[in-house]
């Protein structure tokens, strides 16, 4: 059995605790991927001390040269795409086609970041005084703490790490405990591409590692993707300690299907949105809001197609839906299925573990659909993070928009309609950071900002150009070449 290490101070080292945890394949728990360190605050302290030295070196490297390193990372990801997809599927379960997309997201992010090395724009503006120059420019901030989830083991770390590095920060990285192998290989690739060793630190371990990163006085900024509960606790610490913080948290996303929708297209969208990644996406379609004129027909189409989805090992051909990531996640789905039953919703499909044959060795759960779900019920309001879809019937698009907006979260939404006027009203009035028209709630692109409102986030965005503003600071410079004291903010008129 392979024993892996953390990467601290330019070396692969054991945890100071000497403790390890098994990383198992969720599709077949008999398959042990390896042993990974259970780090603690002592490991984080050593990592941050090294990262401070790395920051002093890296911030002096020209941004285009930093971009060159990330371009080489992209080249390596292209070369190793199939290998990386296979190891990710083994580690977290989603089908190979999805993990290949995960790698491609990292490739796109790498190449986009590389170009931003020549585009860290500031502004040059006229001064109000004569013979005086005024400008702004971007500067790196310091040591960035990066804490990432299990569901996109490569893509989400790249969304954070690549912009952080391009802007000149150093990084202390804690991947999710369910997917340490992917994080491990990503750091190996960064080093292979020529990143100076002290610029990136990898600390494996449980939540105590993330807690130590967030609380460390020399970590200047934190980027976290995970649950709203954990994000709120991180927000309290960072608010008290004046750290810059980006939070990407929960979602309770809805696909709206109106009477005039292309139902075949909408069907493909909801199947992908609800059951892709086994529903384990912050953008997953957890709610289906259907106008009454097509409700019964569309639900029948949906149940028929969803019943044919094939569960299995994501590395085997023909698999549509993989396992949940661990037993705790499956138990959480079971609890919510019982909540739905208790609250009077109708179980139209699924609702139980899948344990036949080889499925008995993994964390499989049948794609599950509830109809007759009441707006405001727990099933309709709370994030489940599994293959459970709640169907809500509405009278018209106005009610659909109201139901969409009446949840704590605000990440993604989708509307299927042929009416261009309603489509534009949806873009304006759906209370989400992302709205799709005639497409599912999942499918963000690397060159556009990604994030949500309300309990989904704290106003910052991943991806696109906006993430570079999070990972850098604006500095303003004035140059007075008049040879005399000129007083701004005095009444010179």
Structure commentary:
- There is one protein chain.
- The chain has 15 helices and 21 strands.
- With 493 residues, the protein is of the alpha/beta class.
- It folds into 2 domains: 6-249 and 457-476, Aldehyde Dehydrogenase, Chain A, domain 1 (3-Layer(aba) Sandwich), CATH 3.40.605.10; 253-437, Aldehyde Dehydrogenase, Chain A, domain 2.
- A 7-stranded mixed sheet has the order 14-15-16-13-12-18-19, with helices on both faces.
- Strand 8 (170-174), helix 6 and strand 9 form a beta-alpha-beta unit.
- Helix 2 (63-79) packs antiparallel against helix 4 (96-116) and helix 9 (263-275) crosses helix 10 (292-306).
- The longest helix is centred in the N-terminal third of the chain and has 21 residues, at 96-116.
- It is globular, with a radius of gyration of 24 Å.
Entry keywords:
493 residues, Aldehyde Dehydrogenase, Chain A, domain 2, 21 strands, 5-stranded parallel sheet, 2 domains, 15 helices, alpha/beta, Aldehyde Dehydrogenase, Chain A, domain 1, 22% strand, 7-stranded mixed sheet
């Amino acid at each position: 059995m392979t024993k892996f290490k953390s990467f601290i101070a330019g070396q692969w080292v054991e945890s100071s605790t000497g403790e390890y945890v098994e990383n198992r394949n969720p599709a077949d728990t008999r398959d042990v991927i390896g042993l990974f360190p259970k780090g603690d605050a002592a490991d984080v302290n050593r990592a941050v001390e090294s990262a401070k030295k790395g920051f002093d070196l890296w911030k002096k490297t020209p941004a285009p040269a930093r971009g060159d390193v990330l371009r080489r990372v992209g080249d390596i990801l292209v070369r190793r795409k199939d290998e990386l997809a296979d190891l990710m599927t083994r580690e977290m379960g989603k089908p190979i086609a999805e993990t290949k997309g995960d790698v491609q997201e990292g490739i796109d992010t790498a190449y986009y970041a590389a170009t931003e090395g020549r585009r860290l724009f500031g502004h040059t503006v006229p001064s109000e005084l004569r013979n005086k120059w005024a400008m702004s420019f971007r500067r790196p901030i310091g040591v960035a703490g990066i804490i990432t989830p299990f569901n996109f083991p490569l893509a989400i770390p790249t969304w954070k790490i690549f912009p952080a590095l391009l802007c000149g920060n150093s990084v202390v990285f804690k991947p999710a405990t369910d997917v340490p192998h992917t994080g491990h290989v990503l750091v190996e690739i960064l080093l292979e591409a020529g990143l100076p060793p002290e610029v990136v630190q990898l600390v494996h371990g449980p939540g105590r590692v993330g807690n130590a990163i967030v609380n460390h006085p020399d970590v200047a900024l934190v980027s976290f993707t995970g649950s709203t509960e954990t994000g709120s606790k991180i927000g309290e610490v960072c608010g008290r300690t004046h750290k810059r913080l980006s939070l990407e948290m929960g979602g309770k996303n809805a696909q709206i299907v109106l009477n005039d929708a292309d139902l075949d297209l909408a069907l493909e969208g909801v199947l992908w949105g609800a059951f892709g990644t086994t529903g384990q996406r912050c953008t997953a379609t957890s709610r289906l809001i259907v106008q009454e004129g097509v409700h019964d027909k569309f639900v029948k189409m949906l149940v028929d197609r969803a019943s044919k989805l094939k569960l299995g090992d994501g590395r085997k051909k023909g698999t549509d839906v993989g396992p949940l990531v661990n037993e705790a996640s499956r138990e959480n789905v079971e609890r919510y299925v019982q909540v739905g039953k208790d609250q009077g919703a109708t179980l139209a499909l699924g609702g139980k573990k899948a344990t036949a044959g080889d499925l008995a060795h993994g964390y499989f759960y049948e794609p599950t659909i509830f109809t007759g779900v009441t707006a405001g019920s727990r099933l309709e309001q709370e994030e489940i993070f599994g293959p459970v879809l709640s169907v809500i019937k509405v009278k018209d698009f106005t009610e659909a928009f109201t139901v969409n907006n009446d949840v704590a979260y605000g990440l993604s939404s989708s509307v299927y309609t042929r009416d261009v006027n309603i489509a534009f009203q949806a873009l304006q009035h759906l209370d989400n950071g992302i709205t799709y028209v005639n497409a599912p709630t999942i499918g963000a692109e690397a060159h556009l900002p990604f994030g949500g409102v309300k309990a989904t986030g704290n106003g910052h965005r991943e991806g696109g150009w906006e993430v570079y503003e999070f990972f850098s600071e604006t500095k303003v410079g004035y140059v007075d070449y008049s040879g005399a004291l000129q007083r701004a903010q005095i009444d010179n008129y």
